[in-house]
Here is the input.
Amino acid sequence: MTDPERVEPVRVGMVGVGIIAETHLAVLAERPDVGLEFTVDPKSVGPVVFRGYTPPHYGSLAEALDVHRPDLVVLATPTETHAELATSALLRSTAGVLVEKPLVHDLASLARLRELDGKADVKSRLFTAHHFAFSPEVDWAAELLAAHPDWGPVTAITSAFYDPYILRGPEAFASYVSSWTDSGVNQLSMLTRFVDLTELTSVRQTDGGASAWCTVGFRSRGETGEARLRSSWLTGSSSKESSLLFGRSGVEVWIDHTSMTGFAARGAELLDAFGNDGRTPRKIAHYRPLYASLLSGRPDPVLGFDTAATITGIHHAVPE
Ligand SMILES: NC(=O)c1ccc[n+]([C@@H]2O[C@H](COP(=O)([O-])OP(=O)(O)OC[C@H]3O[C@@H](n4cnc5c(N)ncnc54)[C@H](O)[C@@H]3O)[C@@H](O)[C@H]2O)c1
Here is the structure.
């Protein structure tokens, strides 16, 4: 899967043909080094047309792996199915496995995946689609931070992620479990671009799991700070923003993940700004660099098992 010398297309099996699979398939279809080998979904879904052809479709991953030898299995299924399907893909094939975020829905599933490492080389085969870490405004802010040691450490972070899932009712809980399960992992993976996360320091989930207010400790340039993370599904529109405060220098970096824009300011002075040409839809802008990294032969560590394990450990440090 990750051999830059290979000439044969990477054979991809797409498991789960729901909302986010559309983005995966659109980005994969742009890549001449990829072919779609099969799709899987127990629900009846319309035929998936990939660059003019429709690959075979199966009702279960096991049936597909009885027939095909994919190089990459992509799991874009409801969160609570990730661990079991990843285990099955690792044990029943030699493929790399890209799992939608979050990798797992609880710590016991993470421990079971870790135990598989002796049997299935989990660390070199299992990847998590931490797509928010690849968003262009995040990239811009991370480069800015690296270029400015003079700004000192990040001392405080506030991030608010809103999704209009209240409109999807119980279906949203079935696919995404809770606002903290779904958005918290996006917030944490995005923050790994800026700081070293240390621990979950407080958790408050409300609205039956549709909203959350959590705090997470971090280290930045030798100092400690705290991130405040708000997420909620109680809205009719999507809106996601984060701000990084450099308290020693008075610099603030504000990033808007919905419009993929940002700016840095100190008091009344604008220090830098970031925009885009408006041509690339947000999810494509995340998954295009994600796949470029995954298929480059040197996947970014944010996709790897160790990062997923660290993020999961913090994400699930929630009292039962
Ligand atoms: N929707 C988004 O914007 C988005 C973005 C990033 C990540 N994700 C993640 O992607 C995952 C899927 O989200 P979604 O929005 O596409 O959900 P979805 O409910 O729209 O799609 C999931 C699909 O998986 C199918 N499925 C269920 N069990 C299966 C199984 N055992 N084998 C094969 N297919 C199965 C379902 O029938 C459905 O078609 C979730 O973990 C979510 O956190 C979603």
